[in-house]
Specification:
The protein has 4 domains: 3-61, no CATH class; 68-140, no CATH class; 152-220, no CATH class; 237-380, no CATH class. Helix content is 43%, strand content 15%. The chain is built from 16 helices and 8 strands. Strand 4 and strand 5 (310-317) form a beta hairpin. The relative contact order is 0.09.
């Protein structure tokens, strides 16, 4: 219902015309409600000047209703009951263990909760079904590719530098919001960032208390979309030639060609960032930029892969090989040599990559120089 307004929130006069039409339209539905058996209305945000709930006051708002919390997604039970043959087929196509496919699906596409009292999370149905239809394409970011991650309202909102910087900060980690604000109305062009990210699917709900709710990024697909949107808004893209080289990374992983992989990583950093970019002050941001450009086909990629001792920075997996990478940044006071030693020490101390998954393990320490704006040293353990 709100799409016409959110597409024109920068044009107040046009928005007022649309709001007037909205009022007349919903009043007409209300007047002839005996003619309708069922009316279902959706929207992204609650806009204060739209008379939907005042004119059409017989509507039942199910936005945060526990009873309907799983209506728009696929539950874990439904996945196993209805789609197990498809998951097993995906495991065969990708030469993966069935349990590992289920785990990867959960990390990639599950995690959405649409009510504070929800008993279970749900999978994004579009992403899940897209993967199961063509598993050979890998665990792609189907949500962002389908424009789910680029709603016009959010894209327009991020065109100002202030909002873009706020998004880059608030789009990381966990946040809290007063429960009373979850149903608050806003002017179309003045929606608070946390609410906007919840309404556009970047944040999802977690129960906190009777007063506060938690807002979290639901899964890896959405986390990847935060990075992708930041890069797209700033038009930080790699060249066609570099994209062809990036597609070769799965082959380079199997060839154990770390030197060639480093060269491609440096091409990504060079083409996506300006020399003055503040990204070179944060190794996790640099890692995320590299990660966002890696291919999904023939490669399983992951960030912050956990084990009992810690989280590895970046992992690249093919059917036969597993490369675990730890990044450290050299900057004023931390030499490249020292940064490399720190990376090596951390890999060993936290036993990154130690598992019995059958792949050949290659562990690599990499140093990103803040002054040289590139990966300057690396060591294969």
């Amino acid at each position: 219902y709100d799409a016409p307004i959110t597409h024109h929130f920068s044009d107040p006069e046009e928005s007022k015309k649309i709001e007037a039409i909205h009022g007349s339209f919903f009043a007409a539905i209300k007047r002839f409600e005996g003619m309708f058996r069922f009316v279902f209305i959706t929207g992204i945000t609650r806009i204060s000047n739209v008379s939907l709930f005042s004119v059409f006051n017989t509507l039942q708002d199910i936005t945060l209703d526990d009873e309907y919390a799983t209506l728009t997604g696929i539950t874990e039970e439904e996945l196993h009951y209805y789609f197990d043959p498809y998951v097993r087929n995906a495991a065969k196509v990708l030469a993966m263990d069935v349990d590992n496919v289920y785990e990867k699906l959960k990390n990639s596409y599950d995690g959405f909760m649409f009510a504070l009292g929800a008993k279970q999370s749900v999978y994004n149905p579009w992403s899940l079904l897209s993967f199961l239809t063509k598993p050979s394409k890998g665990f792609q970011n189907y949500w962002y590719q389908s424009s789910g991650g680029t709603p016009t309202l959010l894209v327009n909102y991020l065109k100002t530098q202030k909002n873009l910087e706020l998004f880059s900060k608030i789009g990381k980690g966990e946040h809290v919001i007063e429960v009373s604000r979850l149903t608050a109305k806003s002017e179309a062009g003045q929606i608070p960032m946390d609410l906007l990210l919840l309404q556009t699917g970047y944040f999802t709900l977690r129960h906190g208390s009777s007063i506060y709710a938690k807002l979290v990024l639901p899964n890896d697909e959405v986390s990847d979309s935060v990075i992708a949107l930041l890069l797209d808004i700033q038009d930080l893209k790699v060249s066609f030639t570099t994209s062809l080289k990036i597609d070769e990374i799965p082959l380079l992983v199997d060839a154990e060609n770390i030197d060639a992989i480093v060269k491609i990583f440096n091409l990504i950093l060079t083409e996506c960032l300006s020399p003055k970019s503040r990204a070179f002050e944060d190794e996790n941001t640099l890692r995320d930029i590299i990660y966002s450009k890696l291919p999904d086909k023939d490669l399983i990629k992951s960030r912050e892969e956990p084990n009992a001792a810690g989280y590895s920075d970046l992992e690249l997996k093919t059917v036969k090989h597993r490369i675990v990478i730890e990044f450290k940044r050299s900057y004023r006071g931390i030499s490249e040599k020292r940064a490399l030693e720190q990376a090596v020490k951390q890999i060993k101390a936290r036993r990154y990559g130690n598992s019995a998954d059958g792949r050949k393990l290659i562990r690599v320490a990499m140093v990103i120089s803040s002054s040289k704006k590139a990966i300057t040293k690396w060591l294969v353990l």
